[in-house]
Amino acid sequence: MTKGNVAITVERCKGCAFCVEFCPTKVLALSPAFNSKGYHPPHVVAPEKCNGCDLCGMFCPDFAIHGWREKKA
Length: 73
Fold this sequence. Notes:
Elements: E1 4-8, H1 18-22, E2 28-30, E3 42-44, H2 55-59, E4 65-69
Antiparallel strand pairs: 1-4, 2-3
């Protein structure tokens, strides 16, 4: 399986949860914590499952998240 990573810009997030809903490997969940706007941003719950597909980034209307694949050494 390809190894991937996810970067989240917490303060851009408005808590729509599209990234959580569309993640095919269920890497993300909404955090119980709030950002400064009062929304629950996503956080990574299963980093080992991320394949770097970037569906989270493609569906995010606020450009608050993106995924990428690690280059093989």
